Amino acid sequence: MSQLNQRLLYLRYKWSFKKFLAELLEKRWMDAIIPFVVMVTVIIVFGSQVDNYFSPMVLSMTARDFAEPGFVALAMAICLISGGIDLSVGGIFAIVNFLALLLIHVYGWPVIMVVPVSLLIGAILGALNGLLIGFLKTKAFLTTLVTMISFRAIVKLLNLKYATEIALSAKNNPYESAAWDFLGDGSLFGIPSDVVVLIIIAFLGHILLTRSRPGWHLYAVGGGRRSARHVGIKVERIIFFVYVISGILTAIGAVFYAARLDSAASETGVGLEILVLMSVVLGGVSIMGGKGTPGRALMGIVIVMVVMNALLRLGVNSAMNSLVQGMILLFAIGVDVKWLKHLYASIEKIYVVPTYLSLPKALDPRQGSGTVFEFNDKMEDTETIGLDQVDGPEDVILDRKGRLYGSVRQGWIVRFSGENFSKREIFANLGGRPLGMAFDKNENLVVCVGGMGLYGVKPDGEVFKITDETNRTWTRLKDDSRIRLADDCDIAPDGKIYFSEATIRYKMEEWPVDGQECRPNGRLICHDPETGITKTVVRNLIFPNGVCLAHDGKSILIGLTWKCDVLRYWIEGPKKGKIETLISGLPIYIDNINRASDGTYWLASVGLRTPVYDLAMEMPSFRLRMVKFVPSDEWLYPNVNWGCVIKFNEQGQVLESYWDPNGAFSHVTSMREHKGYLYLGGLHNNRIGRLKIKGADPEWTGPNSYWGNR
After folding, report:
1. Quick check: 133 and 86 in contact, CB under 8 A?
2. Which of 322, 480, 516, 520 meets the CB 3.0–4.6 Å disulfide criterion with 540?
């Protein structure tokens, strides 16, 4: 293929609309894109049918009508998010409205007392639901249906006893209070008072739900109560307080309603639960639980109130209005179920977008080729450490005392010590998948943890978090501030930690998909312990894996797995901030890089390039069909049956290669030199290897090379 054709293919697959669309649909706010479009459409269409609908006076009146059920919509939304429902909100609304008017007109209480007492009543009524549903574990639908009927009965009893007295007191002794009038008819900067309070509460609620631990716990409970309970969340307590908050929010709406209309009618709040239920579902709050925000709930209430208000102004009778409400509710449920279902299915179908990757022709490793990569048996005498005592030691490292550490699949750092490393212990439990490791000058073990970020382990085994986020790339649609797949790390003389993030698009368990995509989804990140600042220093790398500080401390070596290249990033000197290619087109797929005692570097091979796999890299459409229609365990992969380690110098010249002809240490992902031996780790191995290196310095150790003798 000519260079022009290769360039055209590269450009064709570099920019992908499918990738853009998938990342757009993946945005959290896309869940509510249809409700948002519906809201805008409804406002334009119905507003244009009513005379003077957009005049300031009409908008102010409509806003007051919208705000009071808006509070109840927030109450319903928080219940749905928790995986429940509250059909009693209409009854609570009516009780609080009646009692507020009773305290105002009959007993003459000041507003400063009426408001908190009204909210307390709402909280008590909500607490009754919370007690039954949360701690007694009754069904939310049936429980709140019963309490709705009970609360309605209480309203009727109160109405029979006190309605006449309230009406006479209001007529003969009108209640004079500027504060009460402000609640009913006041405004702030031209915005009705109840709307101002609603916006403030919705904003604070959004922050609480999306940016705080209690909010995350609430979403977890709504997503799956059993799972939430298993991770230690107090599910019963969360549910109890959800209904308490629901009662308080409903009470706030009732207080504003009482101040505005001054009506103690027994029919107050009838049908309110249906109205707010269809509103919040239409706004994108899932009836299945675990999804939704206060903003979406308010979008839904705007849609419903605009439609109802417009129909009323157009002279549509109440029966037709009710029919429209029912149709809206059916539409809302359809949106909730079908849109989200097809949204996630669409993302899955178009998310993987392979690109064109042409690798230089690899040097022939076959016997008799005469190249430095020629197959040999130099690893044939590798000793075995910890056979069947480790599961996938992706990285290995030794400390000053000669103790051997391995990062294994169970989330542990396993340590071997004693004669012939016969003693095994779990040094630390990190929870996620530990990968690359490095010792800092204080002998803390710095660990890249897949899915979690960068963590540290003190010499006594105490685990602490270093960082789990970096600065966001604002030119990317996808938020890349969260660290998803920290891979390998090393530490500069000034204490700054440089580490690779292999991919920002895929999770730890999905890394093979990135190999089929072969896009520059990775980056090099730097964390400064002195300032606590973490920032991305190099972007758009193709699965950056190994990271190693050069012997002179002035540059960082970076291994790109799928590109089969080694890069050099300068952190000191006249080239500071620049990046250059040190080695290109290796015949092996690169993993970790570490120092050697003679001033050179060791590089691990996670797999061997093959002509078939190289050809597949130039066929994005073929790889896409393979990902879509072939099970992942049958995908085309590099040859991982031959273990290999190579050595190269500062100039990028490969000096020698070590091969394992028996396959006992295949799929090598890490190697460390220590006192004349090379220790080998592997992502899928059940052992750690130790190989005697001819001519190596028997006193050289990694900690001494980085931090000097102690």
Report:
1. no
2. 520
- What predicted TM-score, i.e. pTM, was given to this entire model? 0.76
Distance CA 554, CA 540 (A): 22
Residue 123 CB-density burial (10 A; 0-12 exposed, 13-18 middle, 19+ buried):
buried
Distance of alpha carbon 330 from its chain centroid, rounded?
31
Counting Cβ atoms within 10 Å, is residue 347 exposed (0-12), middle (13-18) or buried (19+)?
middle
Side by side, the strands of the sheet bearing 486-491 are 486-491, 497-501, 522-528, 533-541
d(CA 300, CA 72): 12
Q: Give burial (CB, 10 Å; 0-12/13-18/19+) of 463.
A: middle
**If 0-12 CB within 10 Å is exposed, 13-18 middle and 19+ buried, where does residue 397 land?**
buried
Tens digits of residue pLDDT in 67-86: 899 999 999 999 999 999 99
Span of 22-31, 72-81, 591-600 with lowest mean pLDDT: 22-31
Largest CA distance in the chain: 112
Lowest mean pLDDT of 51-65, 238-252, 568-582, name the range: 51-65
The residues near 97 (Cβ < 8 Å, ≥ 6 apart) are 254, 255, 257, 258, 263, 264, 268, 269
Q: Give Cα separations from 472 to 24, 433, 469, 482 (angstroms).
A: 16, 24, 9, 8
The residue count of the chain comes to: 710
Backbone angles phi and psi of 375, in degrees to 5: -55, 140
User: Rounded to whole angstroms, what are the CA distances from 487 to 398, 571, 584?
Assistant: 18, 20, 21
- The CATH code of the domain at 14-348 is 1.10.3470
**Alpha carbons 383 and 680: distance in angstroms, whole number:** 10
d(CA 292, CA 279): 12
Burial 85-96 (b: 16+ CB within 10 A, else e): bbbbbbbbbbbb
Q: What is the mean pLDDT of residues 47-76?
A: 82
Q: What is the DSSP letter of 509?
A: G
Higher pLDDT among residues 437 and 643, named by residue: 437
Nearest to 675 by CA among 657, 648, 702: 702
Encoded tokens for 471:
């600065």
- Average pLDDT (274-283) is 86
- pLDDT value at position 684? 87
Could you give the residue ranges of the DSSP H alpha helices within 15-110? 17-26, 33-49, 56-81, 89-101
Q: What residue ranges do the domains of the chain occupy? A: 14-348, 383-707
Q: CA end-to-end span of the chain, whole Å? A: 58
> How is the beta sheet containing 445-450 ordered, strand by strand?
433-439, 445-450, 453-457, 463-467
DSSP structure class, residue 603:
E
CATH number for domain 383-707, candidates 2.120.10.30, 3.40.50.300, 2.60.40.10, 1.10.287.130: 2.120.10.30
Asked if 14-348 and 383-707 have one fold, the answer is no
